[in-house]
Structures are given as structure tokens and as C-alpha cells.
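Second opinion, please. Pick holes in both lines of this record:
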Amino acid sequence: MALWMRGSVSFVALRELIGYIAQHPEGVRPKEMEVWAREKAHLRTQNGKIVSKTTVYHYRNTLRHLGILVVVNRRYQIARENPLVSELLEVIQPGTLGLSLQERECFAQFVVRNPDCRAYFFDLFMPQDIVTYDLEGFLDKGQPVVWRRVERENRRIEEIYNVEQDEKRCWIQSEDERQAILYGVRYWARNELGFIEEIFLEGTGGLMFPVYLRGPVPDPRVLNALWETISEQDEWTLLSLRKLAAAWGPKYRISLDRLYGTLEWVYYQFPQYVVLIPTSESFATIMATSPQAEKYHLRGYYQDEKGRYISHIRLYRKLKEVVLWPETLTI
């Protein structure tokens, strides 16, 4: 197994490279690719900078390891004999600002099916009896995983373990492993392609879980769960949004955007029965030790249209009387 996944990549830039190389059946030499990417297409990294020669090398190497490119006579060509590559060529839309849902789904298939990505990351999510799986199998059967920094043998290292199968765990001890697992494939799945969600929980670490790429907002399952949570005895029911995210995210395999979007829908539909309770940014990031950690901790919070970070939601008892979601909800 190899740690070629080191570092984040822009899948929009990967798509643009694929579109360019697909126009040249005879293939493209590395130097030609660099000139096109840097001087003609002006491809950019996630932070907005023009890609460097090293970045272009990293990007074409990533495409080769994923099985999208092959090298023939020192030229990079599209691996057209691969059926999944043919599917990708049918859905990619070079020149658009971001990735479409179809593009993300297709790229996600390549990433999940890659043996190295599975061995170092995705296998940790899977039940013991499942050895072979694709994207659908991962999303349907994948279990929550936690990563955290721990003390081991008198040094700080990262640990990743399956919440439901304690024996499934790994320790990240080298910088290459850290770059490949945490800042490589984890970043691709979470930030670039969106089929893994993550929320930081104090005392636990980063809770990661598979999420479906498709689904409605509001989500009927979340609405019905919310309806069942409202107390019939107490006048108000107080709920922690992050606790809901930690429980309902893995259960319904739903992203924070869709989960919080559903709660936001409830708030705007029934403002007389719903109260949003904000917290200060300083309190939300009290355990963060760097600006990067602050940003990471805040990503688990719902931020309303006023820019406030919402920690709790209060639901009035009559909301359950007025709205019979389980029986009447149609979306």
C-alpha cells in the first residue's frame, strides 16, 4: 500500500485536467500539462493561488492512482477502457465554478474503490464482515469513526477508531501518514466530495460518519424525529443542536447542512413556537489552540442569517399539537 494521497487537492482542478487531456487522444506530456494548467487555464488551488509545477505533478499523480489516467509512451491519456471513467466523461462539465452532484458522486466512486484509500481510511468505517464495497455500500453500511490526539509512548499521536468496533483502530505516527489520511483522503471525502461529515465533540474528538449525497431539505426523517422529541408535559423542550447532530447525523446519514437546514425550515415556518439560542464564538472555540482549530470547532455549529452561532433550540409544546408531521408531512 502507498501513501500517495498526501495533501489536499481541488477536484474542480482535477476535472479541468481531465477535460483538457480528453481532448488529446494521443495523450499529453507533463510539460504540456504544466503550461496549460498554469499559463492558459490558470488553474487554482483551494486557497485561490495559481497551481505550481509541484501541484500539477501532484494532481496528475492523483488521477493516475485513481485509475482515471494512464501513461503511454510518457504521455498521460484518459483510461477510456475503464467503464467508470466513461461514466465520468459523460457527466463532467469543465469550465463550471464548482462540482455538480453527478460529478461528486462519480469522483467519490473512484476514491472509495481505490485500494490504498480503503486500506488507510474507509475500511475503518466498515463492519468486519464486509470486505468489498463501492460508494453505495460505504454509505449504507459505514459506521461512525472518531479521530483524536492521544498520548502514546510519551508522545502525541493521532488515533482513529470505529465507535461500534473498538478493535478497528489505527495510530497515525508519521507525517506522511498524517498528510495522506487526515489532510488527504479525509479532506477529499469531507470537504471536496461531501460524502463524509465531521463534527468536533469535546471529550471525544472528531466524529466522522458517512452521509448520503442526495436528499431533501427539509428532511422528513428529521422532522418526524423532532416531533417525537417534543415533550408533552413540559411547556418548552430544550435541545442541543450539536448533540442532535452527533445522534441524528450518523443515524440518518445526513450532512450538517441538510440537518441544520431542516431545523431552519421549522424555525421559519413556525417562528412563534421556536426559539434559537446563540452562543459566543469565544465560548464555542474555548478548547481550540490555533486559528485552524477554531475554524474546525465552529464547523459543527449552525450559523443563522444574522451570523450568530446557535448552540440550542427551544420548542414550544403546542408545536406538537399544531403540526402532526408523522401523519401529514408531504414534501
The first helix runs from residue 11 to 22.
